[in-house]
Write a structure and sequence with these properties.
Blueprint lengths: L1 E7 L3 H7 L4 E4 L7 E7 L12 E13 L5 H4 L8 E15 L7 E4 L3
Parallel strand pairs: 1-3
Antiparallel strand pairs: 1-6, 2-5, 3-4, 4-5
Length: 111
């Protein structure tokens, strides 16, 4: 099965997988809506947190300009040009290795 994927730096990728970060911010928008595989990037390496692994599947339900009120769920400060990628239905998975890419990309998962 093929999934759209997004690479996210640590510790943010783990925060999404744990459900404590429900908005990912980017400086570019997407029209894509649906399931999104969240992949932790190779760097930075943070002891105790996985790197280069798929961690969860989240449903991307909205992409809109970030508001100051989004700072809590985004776990970051508002910044000029930020887009809020609103995530719901976050489902942790058994982590597996994935080579990350920029932007959205496809990952095939054998089921």
């Amino acid at each position: 099965m093929q999934h759209k994927a997004l690479s996210v730096k640590q510790p943010y990728a783990s925060m999404i997988a744990q459900g404590s970060k429900t908005i990912e911010t980017r400086n570019w928008p997407t029209k894509y809506r649906g399931d999104l595989l969240i992949v932790s990037t190779q760097k930075p390496i943070i002891p105790g947190l996985p790197s280069g692994k798929a961690l969860c599947v989240a449903r991307l339900v909205d992409c809109r300009p970030m508001l100051v009120e989004d700072e809590g769920p985004a776990r970051c400060r508002w910044y000029n040009g930020a887009w809020a990628w609103v995530l719901e239905d976050i489902r942790p998975i058994q982590p597996f290795n994935v080579r990350g890419h920029l932007k959205l990309y496809d990952v095939v998962i054998e089921e």
